[in-house]
Amino acid sequence: MNKPAQLRELLSKQVPHLQRNPDCLHVFIENGNIIATGAGKNLSFEYQFNCVLVVTDYAAHADTLIVPILGWLATQQPELLFNPDKRESGFKFKAEIINHSTADIEIVLALTERVKVVAGEGMQLEVTHLPEPVFNDEAIDWTLYTNGIEVPWPPTI
Q: What's the whole-model pTM score?
């Protein structure tokens, strides 16, 4: 699975608290499924899983976490934004207020990754993680500011 590592890298670069405190970001995979039809002896499949991001001791506004994730979703899991059914449950969060200035924030994203498996030379299997389909490149042509500081956009991974 590539997307959990992409999210870790994105948040570590985009969120000042995580730049200073990388150990405050914890990434877990829950409720994973492998969806494979086996049609025609095809070994291609799809990962379906919840990616759980936990940020501890967070003193900034939750927007500084949510906005970069929304930008990432626009290109890496666009149906969570554009499909009304998936939009309802695909991006969840909760927070534990630790004290007057910090919280632990948990974000749960329902993600998928398509994996193509084909027989290559000498019948060796070639595994390729397929990119998400592109819907509209113009939708991500904007500037992101976090706490008044411009950050690179779209996110570089």
A: 0.82
